[in-house]
Specification:
single chain, about 200 residues, alpha+beta, Beta-Lactamase, 2 domains, five-stranded antiparallel beta sheet, 9 strands, binds zinc ion
Length: about 200
């Protein structure tokens, strides 16, 4: 790939703590897209969506991710992983996954790890829907800190919640705002900068 020479080296792995701190389902796949790890939010999310015990983490581990994707979408998802690997780049995809009470859209981010080490997959709630605005935001109270600023990751541009700063939501309307302070989320810090720091002289 022409861009390979400028792509920073990919991490070998991501700390489990980063996947565990995410309130949505996150998982690791092997290079051949078998489940290697599901975070503890996985079962809660699976339960909420009426999946039954056959989709609980203990049942999906070692099975193929694509077996859990509707047949019509398998080529599409396989293509996302192939593109992430080929370009050494994060692939993003938005999908609807409503609960019985809320219309919800999630963003899936597929992070390629080093070749042969598989992929990390993170889901973030995309907060941008008027019908659920009262329940989910993007009310300023959810995101504005004591200084009246929204803390946004300068890399992935997700916004941190005030009541739980480890939760980062994708709030598109925040991208146009000026009352923003920038930081970096744990995921971006680890994914992009750990390998860089490791290779940099202290
Ligand atoms: Zn980030």
């Amino acid at each position: 790939m022409p861009r390979a020479s400028t792509t920073p080296s990919l991490p070998e792995q991501l700390p489990v703590a980063i996947l565990e701190s995410n309130p949505h389902s996150c998982f690791l796949l092997t290079e051949s897209l078998d489940f290697a790890y599901c975070n503890s939010s996985w079962d809660r999310f699976a339960g909420e969506n009426g999946g039954g015990t056959e989709v609980f983490a203990s049942h999906v581990l070692s099975r193929k991710f694509l077996d859990f994707v509707p047949l019509d979408l398998r080529d599409f998802y396989a293509g996302l992983f192939a593109a992430a690997r080929a370009g050494a780049q994060i692939m993003q995809h938005e999908y609807q996954c409503s609960s019985p009470t809320d219309f919800r859209v999630f963003r899936m981010d597929i992070y390629p790890l080093q070749a042969g080490r598989g992929f990390a997959v993170f889901n973030s709630l995309k907060v941008e829907h008027p019908h659920t605005q009262a329940a989910l935001g993007p009310s300023d109270a959810t995101y504005k800190n004591e200084n009246g600023l929204i803390r946004m990751c300068s890399n992935c541009r997700r916004s941190s919640r005030v009541d739980n700063p480890d939760v980062w939501d994708w709030v598109p309307s925040h991208l146009d705002r000026h009352d923003v302070t920038h930081g970096i989320c744990e995921l971006c810090l680890d994914y992009y900068y750990r390998a860089y720091r490791k290779h940099k002289p202290a």
